[in-house]
Amino acid sequence: MKKGGRKRDYTPYQLVEKLSSLGLTREEMRAVTGLSKKQFEWRMRTDKRFADIVKSGRQEANRLVEQALFRRAIGYQVESTEVHEYYDSNDRVLNKKKVKKVQHIPPDTKAALEWLYNRDPERWKKALQLDVKNSLSFVEQSRIANEY
């Protein structure tokens, strides 16, 4: 007897890999796959391939965020193309001109500090604490000192 319905274009492993690489949490993956919490955790414990796929997908998502944070921390350039149209008095297009533009996105200090703190927390934790204390007003600093 033939089974009805549409043939799947992917395996369950491919689905979980895609969901994990998109940064979905285990709870969100369970909702999409229809697995209960108990079923999902059982698969994680008993199916090494399933567990490896979930973990490697999360690592890929983390890597992409890490790259984006690094680019934001050091600054980057974005190339774009604008189309300029020139019209005559009857609103007919006389000429189209493509202009390439390069926009410089400056470094973001907050992203740089976040990057450094996550990469070397022992070294940068103190620097972040000093930065926070230095930004407080004199009155706030003395109030904090009296409380502690």
Give the helix/strand layout:
Elements: H1 12-21, H2 26-33, H3 37-46, H4 48-74, E1 76-87, E2 93-105, H5 109-119, H6 121-135, H7 138-147
Helix pairs in contact: 1-4, 3-4, 4-5, 5-6
Q: Explain this structure to me?
A:
There is one protein chain. The protein has 148 residues and is α+β, with helices and mostly antiparallel strands. The protein contains 7 helices and 2 strands, in the order H-H-H-H-E-E-H-H-H. It has helices at 12-21, 26-33, 37-46, 48-74, 109-119, 121-135, 138-147, and strands spanning 76-87, 93-105. The longest helix is centred in the middle third of the chain and has 27 residues, at 48-74. The chain is flat, with a radius of gyration of 26 Å.
